[in-house]
């Protein structure tokens, strides 16, 4: 059944690269706060940085929960599920951090990702626990392709429209925690 790993080996890296969607879970420290669980995707937007660290490109959205939660307490879990092939679930637990577009580190890391409109941050996770599970209850699903709405929306809004939207919607979480804190570009 399940197994714990000390690091992301070649076999796990290959499994991660084949997945078309992953899920990110975070929570605030407050017991009254909202737990966040977000599906993520788009080809090339998830990268294994080292045997114990990963990152994904984060896009402008209606909320900013992941950024706010990792800013407050850094706790984060990323989960992959095999929807085709052999059943498997992979969870990466650890400490996350958000690197906003205005941070100089963003430019260095962004070279690893496709240049897509609407990117607002890179979320990094330093893995403290890496485990898999059987995934026997996960259904088979057929991949039909990428959706274009996210990047189409960002292109229609343009840089100024995205900046205005983020100022309005991405400065704080649903629980009132700080979201984007740097200059929005």
Describe the structure in your own words:
The structure is a single chain. With 185 residues, this protein is an alpha+beta fold. The protein has four helices and eight strands, in the order βαββββαββαβα. The protein has helices at residues 10-18, 65-72, 104-110, 149-169, and strands at 3-5, 22-26, 36-40, 46-50, 53-59, 75-81, 89-100, 119-133. Strands 1, 2, 3, 4, 5, 6, 7 and 8 form an eight-stranded antiparallel β-sheet that branches. The radius of gyration is 16 Å and the shape is globular. The model has no long low-confidence stretch (mean pLDDT 96).
Blueprint (SSEs and pairs):
Layout: E1 3-5, H1 10-18, E2 22-26, E3 36-40, E4 46-50, E5 53-59, H2 65-72, E6 75-81, E7 89-100, H3 104-110, E8 119-133, H4 149-169
Antiparallel strand pairs: 1-8, 2-3, 2-6, 4-5, 5-8, 6-7, 7-8
Radius of gyration: 16 Å
How much beta, percentage-wise? 25-35%
Shape, per Cα inertia axes: globular
Distance between the termini: 46 Å
Summarize the structure.
This protein is α+β, with helices and mostly antiparallel strands and 185 residues long. It has one domain: Pnp Oxidase, Chain A (Roll).
Provide tags for this entry.
globular; 8-stranded antiparallel sheet; 4 helices; about 180 residues; Pnp Oxidase, Chain A; single chain; alpha+beta
């Amino acid at each position: 059944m399940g197994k714990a790993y000390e690091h992301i080996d070649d076999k796990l890296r290959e499994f991660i690269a084949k997945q078309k969607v992953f899920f990110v879970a975070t929570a605030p420290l407050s017991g009254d706060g909202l737990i966040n669980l977000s599906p993520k995707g788009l080809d090339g937007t998830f990268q294994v940085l080292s045997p114990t660290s990963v990152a994904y490109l984060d896009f402008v959205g209606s909320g900013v929960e992941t950024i706010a939660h990792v800013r407050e307490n850094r706790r984060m879990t990323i989960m992959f599920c095999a929807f085709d092939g052999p059943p498997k679930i992979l969870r990466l637990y650890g400490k996350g951090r958000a690197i906003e577009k205005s941070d100089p580190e963003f430019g260095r890391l962004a070279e690893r990702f496709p240049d897509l409109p609407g990117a607002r941050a890179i979320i990094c996770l330093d893995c403290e626990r890496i485990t898999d599970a059987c995934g026997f209850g996960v259904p088979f699903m057929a991949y039909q392709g990428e959706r274009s709405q996210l990047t189409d929306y960002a292109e229609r809004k343009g840089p100024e429209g995205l900046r205005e939207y983020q100022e309005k919607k991405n400065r704080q979480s649903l629980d009132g925690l700080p979201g984007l804190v740097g200059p929005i570009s």
